[in-house]
Amino acid sequence: MKIATFNINNVNRRLPNLLAWLAEAAPDVVCLQELKAAQAQFPAKALREAGYHSVWQGERSWNGVAILARGAAPICTRRSLPGDDGDKAARYIEAAVKGVLIGCLYLPNGNPQPGPKFDAKLAWFQRLNAHAAGLLQAGVPAVLAGDFNVVPTDDDIYPTKSWTKDALLQPEVRAAYAALLAQGWTDALRSLHPDARLYTFWDYKRDRWARDGGLRLDHILLSPHLAPRLKQAGVDRDVRGAEGASDHAPAWVILRRAARPRGESGDPRHR
User: Fold this and answer.
1) Hey, how many other C-beta atoms are within 10 angstroms of the C-beta on 128?
2) Where does the Endonuclease/exonuclease/phosphatase domain lie (predicted)?
3) How many helices (H) and strands (E) does the chain have?
4) Helices 116-138 and 171-182, axial angle in degrees (round to 10)
5) How far out from the chain centre does Cα 229 lie?
C-alpha cells in the first residue's frame, strides 16, 4: 500500500501537475493540503476519471484538505480536528481506506511569532496530539500525514541561519512534534533515512529550489500497528522542478501487506 502526502498549493491551478504525478507514481492513498478551493470547486470529476475517489473539506482562499484513494472510496469519519467547535478552518479530514484510518492535516504556519498566530499554532498542535493519543488508545491502524509546518530538527533544513526566528523552527513547536512521536508514532521518512538530508519544501523566494535550500515540513506518521509494515519511504523531489509546480514535493511510504492470521490463506474457502 503506497500512501503519499502532497501540499498541492492550489489544487485547480496545479491540477495538470497533480494528474501527471498520480499517473506516474500511482499511490494508493494521497493526502492533499492547501487546496485553496471552495467545496464546490474541488476537481472531483477529473480525479475520478484518473482513477481516484475523493473526500475533501474545501476553503475558498486558503487551507483545504482532501484524501484520495485509488480503486476504493474513502469513508469519511471526521471533517475537523476535535477540541474547538469555533475552529472553522479546513485543516483536518479523516477517512478509512482499505482497513487503515488516514488523518490528513495542514497545521497552521504560526508566523509571525511571537503573537496570536503562533499561539493558535501551538493550541492546534495540542489538540492534534490529544486526538492522536486517542487514536492510539483505540488501537486502530492509523496514519497521520500532511504539512505539519514544523522542521523537527536542524537535520531537516539546509545549513542556514535565515529561518532561525521563523515559527517552523521554534523550540515549542519542535517539542510538540517530539511529544507526538513519544506517544508511539513513527516518523516514516526519518525512520528509514536517519542520516539523509530530506526536504519536501523549497520556497519560491531567493532561488531556493535551484540551490537546494529545502526544509522537511511534510511528514507521514505511522501508528504502532503499521510501523512494522514500513517497507520504503521517500520524496518525489523532481515534482518540485516541473513547470508551474507547487513549492512542496510529495512524500510517500510503501507498507507491506498485513500478515494474515494463522490458519488463513489466499484460498477463499479459508476466509
Assistant:
1) 23
2) 4-248
3) 5, 12
4) 0
5) 18
Rounded Cα gap, residues 80 and 84, in angstroms: 9
Closest to 162 in 3D by CA, of 175, 173, 178, 151: 151
Cell readout for 39 is 467545496
Strands 29-33 and 2-7: parallel
Would you call 98 helix, strand, or coil by DSSP? coil
For the chain, list the domains and their CATH numbers: 2-258 (3.60.10.10)
42, 11 contact by CB (below 8 A): yes
Judged by DSSP in three states, 189 sits in helix
Q: What amino acid is encoded at 17 in this protein?
A: N
Give the residues across from 218 on adjacent strands. 147
Q: What is the dihedral of CA 173, 93, 145, 202, to 10 degrees?
A: -70
Note the pLDDT tens digit of each residue in 22-74. 999 999 999 999 999 999 999 999 999 999 999 999 999 889 999 999 999 99
* Cβ neighbours, 10 Å, residue 11: 26
Cα(83)–Cα(64) distance, rounded to whole angstroms?
19
Give the integer Cα–Cα distance in Å for 92 and 96. 14
Q: Which of 151, 11, 122 is nearest to 68 (CA)?
A: 11
The Cα diameter of the chain in Å comes to 62
What is the pLDDT confidence band of residue 266, given thresholds at 50, 70 and 90? very low
How far is 70 from 255, CA to CA, in rounded Å?
A: 15
Per-residue pLDDT tens digits for 134-177: 999 999 999 999 999 999 999 999 999 999 999 999 999 999 99
On whether the pTM is more than 0.70, the answer is yes
Location of C-alpha cell 477540541: 83
| Dihedral angle computed from the Cα positions of residues 8, 18, 228 and 196, in that order, rounded to the nearest 10 degrees | -70
